[in-house]
Amino acid sequence: MSQSTPTEYDPIWESEIYSQGQALNRYPFDLVVSFVYRHYPRSKARGDVKILEIGCGAGNNLWFAAREGFSVTGIDGSASAIEFARKRFAEDGLKGDLRVGDFIRLPFDDNSFDIVIDRAALTCSGATAARATIQEVRRVLLPEGKFYFNPYSDRHASFSAGKPGPDGLRVDIDGGTLVGIGPLYFYSKREMFDIFNETTGWKILSIRHIEWSEELLPKVDIHAEWIVIAQKI
Predict the structure, then answer these.
(1) How far apart are CA 134 and CA 196, in angstroms?
(2) Helix/strand/coil for 131
(3) Cα(185)–Cα(178) distance, integer angstroms
C-alpha cells in the first residue's frame, strides 16, 4: 500500500481504487446536499453561484449541484475519477469544469467561488498539505464565502488501528471502517479551532462531531468525523 508525502495526492486512490472501478459514487452525500441548499447565496441566480469541490472524485456531489442549476468546478488527483465524471456529465447534458490537479496549488483566481466543498478528501493528506490547501481555499473563496470541511476525527476506531506516519498521517490501518484507503489524517477538536479562527481569516458557523457504531463487525467500531462550516472573513 502506498503512502502519501505531505504535498502529494495519495496514488492509492488512482492505482487501487478509482482505476479499478471502485468508489465511483453516482449520487451525492445527503449532508453535502443540505449544506448547499442552506448556504448558497440567495442574492444570486443559481447559475451565477459558483461551487468548487476539492477531491471531487467521480463528481457525484457536483452532478447534483449542476442538475440544480449551479455553476460547478471540481478538481481531483485521479485521472480515472475525472474521466468518469466528465463522461457522466456529458451523458446527462450537464456542464462543469472538471480537472485533474493538486489541491495545494489551486489553479483558480482569488475570490472566485461562493462555496467550496471538501468531503473527506483533505483527510487523506498530511497536516502540512491540508493546511496549505485550506489557505488556498480561503484565497479562492469570495468574501463571506462558505467552506464545508468534513475530515475524520481522532475518536475514530481506525485512528488507533493505524501506525504513526509522516506529517501526522496514520498508516497501515488494519481496523475500523477505514481499512484499505491509504494513509489518513485524523483531526482533534483543538485542531478544528486552531485552523478556523479570526487570526487565520475564518469564522466558524457550525462545528459538528458525528459518531456512529458499526455493529456488524466482529467487534463494535466507532466511525467518527467532523463537519465544519466556516466563512471567509
Answers:
(1) 9
(2) helix
(3) 12
- The x, y and z cell numbers of residue 122, run together, are 483533505
Collect all residues with Cβ–Cβ distance below 8 Å to 37 and sequence separation of at least 6: none
Count the alpha carbons within 13 Å of 198 in the hemisphere toward its beta carbon: 0
Grid cell for residue 186: 485524523
C-alpha cell at 204: 466558524
Topology of the domain comprising 12-151+184-210+227-232: Rossmann fold (3.40.50)
- Please state, in angstroms and rounded to a whole number, the distance separating the CA atoms of residues 115 and 145: 6
Whole-number Å distance between alpha carbons of 105 and 94: 26
81 in Cβ contact with 101 (< 8 Å): no
Amino acid present at 125: S
Tell me which H or E stretch contains 210.
Answer: strand 202-214
C-alpha cell at 109: 483566481
Q: Residue with C-alpha cell 478528501?
A: 121
DSSP 86: H
What residue spans define the domains of the chain? 12-151+184-210+227-232
Question: Residue-wise pLDDT tens for the chain (233 aa)?
Answer: 333 333 345 678 888 889 888 888 999 999 999 999 999 999 999 999 999 999 999 999 999 999 999 999 999 999 999 999 999 999 999 999 999 998 889 999 999 999 999 999 999 999 999 999 999 999 999 999 999 999 999 999 999 999 999 999 999 999 999 999 999 999 999 999 999 999 999 999 999 999 999 887 677 899 999 999 999 99
By the 8 A CB rule, do 102 and 133 touch? no
